[in-house]
(S)-ureidoglycine aminohydrolase cupin domain-containing protein (Escallonia herrerae), 106 residues
Amino acid sequence: MATHSHTVDSTSSPSIVVESNPSDSRLHELGIKSWPKWGCPPGMYPLKYDAEQTCYFLRGKVKAYPKGSTEFAEFGAGDLVTFPKGLSCTWDVSVAVDKHYIFTSS
């Protein structure tokens, strides 16, 4: 199964990095199973990241619209997503989210 990454880049804000279908060995290396879990029902959620956050989505479907950008990132079940420190965005959740997450201090 091929893994690919893509970023949503906007000149005015840091970018969201989406890694689709990371390998089991990569997930094990990151220690995903020991990370806290978080979930939310469908809806709109304004979020601000005061620290870099990496998430692994167990389920869900989200479009994230970075503040000040016309671009959006789309991710969901099976994706490993990194949100940069300082990012403000709105999540448009169409399928309830269940994810593991960790904050990384720079």
Observations:
- The CA atoms of residues 20 and 79 lie 5 Å apart.
